[in-house]
Structures are given as structure tokens and as C-alpha cells.
Amino acid sequence: MELCCYKGNLFGKYNSAVGRAEDYYHLRGRYTVRGGDCILGWSIAYNNAAFGNSNSSSSWAGIHYADEGIIYTQWLLARYQQREHFWRAFHTNQDTFKRIC
To answer: What GO cellular component entries does it have (predicted)?
Structure first.
């Protein structure tokens, strides 16, 4: 994942380690700073040149603690399902992102 920050806006690209992920997905989000720490969130629509439209999207909300260089997040994935299977359209979990450069 690559994140760029500018005046409260986040933008960048994301590649999932899950499944057959190829290519990147564009991400957009927002952040706010409290002291040196940062509250942030971003979303992705899974649609790229390698696989086209996956009919799904994810959003992450998290905290970056400045002294660690780590972003702790919770995420929600929504995948299209027929109405009678709506209950299985959503998945949630957590991710940790560590700065590597």
C-alpha cells in the first residue's frame, strides 16, 4: 500500500495479499491529526485493469501512533449478493500496516 497525505486528504494505491490480487486499486480517504498521532480512514472500490469490476468495496478506519510508525485499523468489506443472500455480503476484521520506508 502507498499512502500520500495532503491537507487532510489521503490518496494512494493498495494491493491485497488475499486471493489472486494483481495490479493496484486506487484509494481515497481523510485524516485528522491529534498531537502527533493521526485518525484516518480510506476506501477502495475493487475495480482495476487486471480483473475489472469485482463488485465489492472496502473501508478502513484506524489510528496511526507517531512514535511507532504503525497504522492499526478495522475494516469492512462489502461484496454484492442477491437480496436473499444479503446476510453474507459483509465481512469485517482488522489490519496492521507498518511503515517500511
So the answer is: extracellular region
- Dihedral-angle region of residue 86 (phi above 0 means left; psi in -120 to 50 means alpha; beta otherwise): alpha
pTM equals 0.87
Per DSSP, the residues of 19-66 read: TT--S-EEEEEEEEEETTEEEEEEEEEEEETTTEEEEEEEEEEEEEET
Dump pLDDT digits (tens) for 6-53: 999 999 999 876 666 668 889 999 999 988 899 999 999 988 877 788
Cα–Cα distance, 50 to 58 (Å, whole number):
18
Q: pLDDT tens digits, residue range 17-28?
A: 666 666 888 999
Q: How many CA atoms lie within 13 A of 101 on its CB side?
A: 4
Each domain of the chain, given as residue ranges in start order, spans 2-98
Question: How far is the C-alpha of 21 from the C-alpha of 50, rounded, in Å?
Answer: 9
